[in-house]
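Two records follow; treat each independently.
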Amino acid sequence: MGVDLNEQLNLHPGRTLLLRVCGDSMLGAGIRHGDLLVVDREATPRSGRIVVALLEGGFTLKRLVRRGAHWWLEPANPAYPPLALGGNDDDRLWGVAVHVIRSLPGGR
């Protein structure tokens, strides 16, 4: 019996994308360099969710956190600093990561 990945991963054409992770800022969240992320462009970005944001002309993957009245993008690796969001930065939140797909060693 086969598994329908569209159904299992809740993939919706036009709103769901697969993105390849570059970097190690989210290692503590179990997201590694080379992983594929399922990103939902219409999911609501809330505090605690891992989001894809467009900052300074590039994409970044971080956990969205609210402290008081301020929003932050926090890495899951102590080698990287948190990034403050302010002003109209909420429109830079590009999508919410909903699944991670990882290849096994030797599987690629």
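The next record belongs to a different protein.
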Amino acid sequence: MLAALWFLADAAEEGKDVVLMMLAVGLVFLATIGLGELWHYVGAKRRRAKLDRPL
């Protein structure tokens, strides 16, 4: 009985670790998308400013 409880507790810890790693991977994906969008915004802003300046 005690061995079964230990096994379940170990599985719960492993499940917790898996969920935390999945959240970390999701955060990396969101950060990558966010940085790409920021890079796109800054580049477009720079191009607009370059076109608007007088010769």
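Discussion point: Residues 23 and 33 are 15 Å apart (CA to CA). How would you locate this feature using only the token line?
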